Amino acid sequence: MRAFTSLLALCLLAGCASQERRAEMPDHGPIDIGLKQGLKAEIVSDHLGNPTHVSFRPSDGALTICASADGNVIMVDGKTWIVRDGFDLEYWKKISPTENFYHIGPLFALWLPDNTIAVGDGGKPDGKEVVAFYKGAGKAADALGVTNAIGPTSEPAVETDKGEGNFVGPVLSKDGNTIYVCSHGNDAKTWLMAVDVKTRKLTTLLSSDEGGVSTNAPMQCLLVRDHLMVVYNGAGGKDDGLVVEWDLATKKPVNQWKLPGLLDPMGMAAIAGKTDEYVITDNNWDLRSVKDGKLARVKLVPGKDAVIEVIADKVKGPVHCAFGPDKRLYVACLGSMYDQDKGMVIAIEGIK
Residue 48 forms beta bridges with which residues? Predict the structure, then answer.
């Protein structure tokens, strides 16, 4: 990624120099995550609250992170800057009045080609969440515009269906007109969503359950062979993760792969120059603590079983991953404990 010699250069590229604010500089350096020989890992940002998504600004490749529990989106390019803050926060799981787990706010920050950023506003209740669009730096409330929310989709109505929310794992269509995104809400439908970039309309795209896929919790979308490839987390701590390739025209699955040995797959990134090869994060989810997770190199050939090679086995809570313009893999990790400032983003060199 490019290094900038002045605050002015960074702020001009952000489009709003007067509003961009400096965050606390993290401590960087090598980290042992049990990597396979020949690969190297280092921390590029830390002291984060439940980081959930990484992306890169088109104009200069600046690393962009959703620090979800901090309620902000930050950028890292030599220094760390808060780009948008003040997002609503909620707990994903409320067991009792005194036991709340996994604080979440913005869950993804997807850059569009014109340097507009689309943010999944996950801190609102299900049925109230939206995707918001921003240009430059500022407060979460100062959006260019927001999508509609998606209320309950059950017919007839089901009390447990509060509507859709916790939008994660987006991908932009090749023509730039549509954002495909995973959704969580009505478990009897398990929706994938679509956002019209021009009209900012959010709609249900397809129901996994109606397509014969019963595994719940879609986490990441990719576009492959003009189809939508989706990784499903399944139940926490169980070996039921799945990757499904969806035909967007028929809204039916054309390929499915089980992921034996990966308990809670959450992130998925295509390896450049390789056909049907990906890196998948295994979060190894636990409600009360962060366990050692994995990174796996996975080959998904249509009609064949997945070929899985674990390349790291001591990663603390890996969530989302993406390859940067420098060809390194960037992984958002919960760190040693979620709901505190233990989260980090790790960059891994040598995957090719």
Answer: 343
Q: Are 242 and 213 spatial neighbours (Cβ–Cβ below 8 Å)?
A: yes
CA distances from 1 to 47, 60, 114, 296, 326 (A): 21, 7, 19, 25, 6
Q: What are the angstrom distances between the C-alpha of 224 and each of 108, 175, 180, 218, 272? A: 21, 14, 13, 16, 12
Q: Report the chain's mean pLDDT, rounded to a whole number.
A: 90
Residue 113 has what pLDDT?
95
Cα dihedral 35/40/44/46 (nearest 10) = 30
73, 83 contact by CB (below 8 A):
yes
Instruction: Compute φ and ψ for 169, nearest 5 degrees.
Output: 60, 50
For the chain, give every domain's residue range. Answer: 27-349
Q: Let me know: does 56 contact 62? Beta carbons within 8 Å.
A: yes
In order, the DSSP letters of 240-265 are --EEEEEETTTTEEEEEEE-TT-SSE
Distance CA(37)–CA(90), nearest Å, equals 40
Dihedral angle, C-alpha 11, 16, 19, 23, nearest 10 °: -40
27, pLDDT greater than 70 = no
Q: Which two tokens stand for residue 34?
A: 């049990």
Torsion over CA: 47, 65, 106, 337 (sign): negative
Regarding beta strands 165-172 and 178-184, do their DSSP bridges make them parallel or antiparallel, or are they unpaired?
antiparallel
CATH class, range 27-349: mainly beta
* Torsion of the alpha carbons at 77, 172, 176 and 87, rounded to the nearest 10: -60
| pLDDT higher than threshold 70 for residue 145 | yes
Q: Looking at residues 305-322, what average pLDDT do you find?
A: 98
Report the C-alpha gap between 220 and 228 in whole angstroms: 10
Torsion over CA of 79, 332, 170 and 294, rounded to 10 degrees? Answer: 150
Residue-wise pLDDT for 75-88, tens only, equals 998 788 899 999 99
DSSP for 14-81 reads: HT-TTT-EEPPPPP-EE----PPTT-EEEEEEEEESSEEEEEE-TTT--EEEEEGGGTEEEEEESEEE
Judge contact between 201 and 193, C-beta under 8 A. no
Provide the pLDDT for residue 101. Answer: 86
The closest of 192, 319, 167, 202 to 246, measured between CA atoms, is 192
